């Protein structure tokens, strides 16, 4: 993740493989690391939507709060550059915020501030 953050191009060779296998990632350790890599990749709008759909599904269904934390942040980063994703994210973010897990609610509030939306 440190290398991907400082040198995003290092993720390019893994993009197709990661996107192809998103539905196969069930382990929570993988699910919290993948969003952190995906945000550094140069994604087409279709690839961005696929990544967004996967990380949002993980955020909403995985028992791990850390998966939701990193998945929501990646979804927010994708939504910043795609208005259609923002429209999808807002109600889902509100629902997750209301669910009550403190760490997830805190992340939802930070994302709302980042995207300048109201929960």
Describe, in short, the structure shown.
The protein has 119 residues and is mostly helical.
Number of domains: 1
Q: Helical percent range?
A: over 70%
CA(first)-CA(last) distance: 30 Å
Low-pLDDT sequence parts: none
Q: What order do the SSEs take from the amino end to the carboxyl end, as H and E?
A: HHHHHHH
% residues in beta strands: under 5%
* Extended strand count: 0
The assigned structural class equals: mainly alpha
Describe what this molecule looks like in 3D.
The protein has helices at about 1-5, 15-20, 30-40, 45-60, 65-80, 85-100, 100-115. The chain is mainly alpha-helical. The longest helix is centred in the middle third of the chain and has 17 residues, at about 45-60. The relative contact order is 0.12.
Q: Keywords for this structure?
A:
119 residues, mainly alpha, 7 helices
Question: What is this structure's SSE topology?
Answer:
Layout: H1 2-6, H2 15-20, H3 28-38, H4 45-61, H5 65-80, H6 83-99, H7 102-115
């Amino acid at each position: 993740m440190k290398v991907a953050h400082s040198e995003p191009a290092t993720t390019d060779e893994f993009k197709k493989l990661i996107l192809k296998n998103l539905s196969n990632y069930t382990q929570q350790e993988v699910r919290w690391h993948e969003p952190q890599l995906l945000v550094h990749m140069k994604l087409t709008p279709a690839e961005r939507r696929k990544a967004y759909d996967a990380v949002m599904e993980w955020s909403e269904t995985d028992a791990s709060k850390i998966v939701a934390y990193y998945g929501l942040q990646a979804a927010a980063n994708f939504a910043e550059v795609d208005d259609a994703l923002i429209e999808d994210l807002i109600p889902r973010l509100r629902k997750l915020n209301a669910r009550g897990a403190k760490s997830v609610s805190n992340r939802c509030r930070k994302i709302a501030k980042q995207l300048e939306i109201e929960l």
